[in-house]
Specification:
76% helix, 0% strand, mainly alpha
């Protein structure tokens, strides 16, 4: 192994360790990138102001509108109570006896409607807390259910999802968000059913062992004044979701247009709360910057990795793996998503480096690029949720749970099952195309 290739792995490991320990990736990423450059005999300053900043700025330029409008949309849905009203409506019909489903289903609807998974975590946790208390289930099982619903199939597998992990491949393969619908449906079953049944099994074991709910003294429940809102207010949570999905997939408009339509519809349905609308837009705008900067810094690190001599060796290994190009792509995206702790960041790095070669080979063998799109999206939602993932850290912080208490369920439902599922689908699908 060359020193440059070894430097890539050392940099990746250091990035994961420092992120896991809670250090900000905004400074960790350039430091790790500098180490990679140093071990490859490259100028640290030139690499930082060149490859690193070009990768970072390029990602921001390409995806800031989606991050910005997605954050605004989520905040408008949150602060007007629209998302909460929809979730409460669903919970009232499902009941606490099906506590896992009562938490997972609202998460799935919100993320499929384009609401950022970070926003979903903050919206769902107070309701999930009340549901698990009513069902007398351990509070430490709640993060697993939220993660499965928010970080799972609606982020990568469901056809037409407006989440960025389903949009990035369109820029590389010339596809649409509805790419490979049959594979998407199979993936939903392969990844979704085991994850859900696992969570139900965990709840059943807790009941059998007599493990019940324990209050969290740090959590202060915020009362939602539902009485001041019309009885149909849950529609203010559902209709904008439908609008975003329809405008994106049926009318085939840009994600910017889709999110703007969702924001406008939500605002119009909440005119009685006009005093909240501007503050919610302001809060969303401010919240979009940390989200995109964290991801962009990871992409900047990947841009440095792409520029060192060892990456050519790594690319050759990925491209010449046994099996088909779908399996090669699944491995590459999983590895880089895990290394950066970011689904979108890892996928962007992998596709920036390898997509032209995958597309060329797909053309040679007559493979529809939609399959490359879907496998890339599915694979981004696997190793990304290792312990250092930002969304995982946020969820555990909001839930006041430690990795030791709750990470096992998160890992199995959003990491292990999706990794196995994406690799298996890539391997098997490649045999029949």
């Amino acid at each position: 192994m060359s020193i440059s290739l070894a430097g890539i792995f050392i940099g990746l490991i250091l990035l994961m360790v420092l992120a896991y320990r809670g250090y900000s990736i905004i400074w960790v990423a350039p430091v790790c990138a500098a180490l990679v450059a140093l071990l490859s005999g490259m100028s640290i300053l030139s690499t930082y102001v060149g490859d690193y900043m070009q990768g970072l700025s390029g990602y921001v330029m390409a995806w800031f509108p989606a991050f910005f409008l997605g954050a605004v949309y989520g905040k408008v849905m949150d602060m007007t109570g629209s998302a909460r009203s929809l979730a409460n409506w669903l919970v009232n019909r499902i009941g606490a006896k099906r506590a896992v489903l009562a938490v997972v289903l609202p998460c799935l609807l919100m993320t499929y409607g384009g609401i950022s998974l970070f926003v979903v975590v903050f919206v769902i946790y107070p309701m999930g807390y009340a549901i698990y208390r009513a069902a007398n289930l351990p509070r430490t099982l709640l993060p697993g259910a939220i993660a499965f619903g928010a970080f799972g199939i609606t982020m990568t597998a469901v056809p037409g999802t407006p989440q960025i992990q389903n949009l990035i491949p369109t820029t590389f393969y010339g596809t649409t968000p509805m790419a490979a619908p049959l594979m998407s449906i199979v993936a939903m079953l392969v990844i979704g059913l085991p994850g859900y049944f696992y969570l139900e099994w965990r709840a059943s074991v807790a009941r059998t062992k007599g493990r019940g709910f324990v209050e969290d003294n740090k959590f202060v429940e915020m009362e939602h004044d539902a009485a001041s809102l019309p009885v149909w207010h849950w529609l203010a949570g559902l209709v904008p979701i439908v609008v975003v999905v329809v405008v994106l997939n049926v009318l085939q408009q840009h994600i910017v247009v889709s999110l703007v339509c969702g924001i406008v519809v939500c605002c119009l349905m909440n005119l009685q709360q006009w005093k909240v609308l501007i503050p919610s837009i302001n809060a969303g705008a401010g919240g979009s910057l940390p989200a995109i900067m964290n991801t962009a810094c990871a992409v900047g690190f990947g841009s440095v990795v792409k520029g060192v001599p060892g990456f050519a060796t790594l690319t050759s290994i990925m491209m010449n793996m046994p099996g088909n190009i779908l399996f090669s792509e699944a491995v590459a995206v999983n590895v880089l998503a895990g290394a950066t702790g970011s689904a979108s960041g890892g996928m962007s790095i992998a596709l920036s480096a390898l997509a032209p070669q995958y597309l060329e080979r797909a053309t040679q063998i007559g493979l529809n690029p939609e399959y490359l799109h879907r496998i890339a999206s599915l694979s981004s939602g696997g190793l990304d949720t290792l312990p250092h993932n930002g969304a995982v850290l946020t969820l555990l912080a909001v839930s006041n749970c430690s990795h030791k208490e709750s990470y096992l369920d998160i890992c199995i439902t959003t990491c292990i099952i999706p990794v196995v599922g994406s690799l298996a689908l890539a391997l098997v699908w490649g045999l029949f195309i």
